[in-house]
Amino acid sequence: xxxxxxxxxxxxxxxxxxxxxxxxxxxxxxxxxxxxxxxxxxxxxxxxxxxxxxxxxxxxxxxxxxxxxxxxxxxxxxxxxxxxxxxx
Length: 88
Known about the structure:
Helix 2 runs parallel beside helix 3. 3% of the residues are buried. By secondary structure, this protein is mainly alpha-helical. The model is unreliable at 1-7 (pLDDT under 50). Strand 1, helix 3 (43-54) and strand 2 (58-62) form a beta-alpha-beta unit. A two-stranded parallel sheet has the order 1-2. The protein has helices at residues 2-8, 18-27, 43-54, 75-87, and strands spanning 33-37, 58-62.
């Protein structure tokens, strides 16, 4: 029955987020490739990688995105700075 589901589910889509990807893997959804940020080794990511290996999903590490000049802070600090700049 699982194989029938995989054949029927051939629509192309993108799944993002740890919980969404993990649920899709556990539900038996057809996943062609899994992109994981290099250096990400926390619990949920390791669980996803383990499940992906069981399902014979191609796993690809991707480099961390480069920070833009002047954006060396987290998004919360950045949004606070923008709000302060707008006040002046």
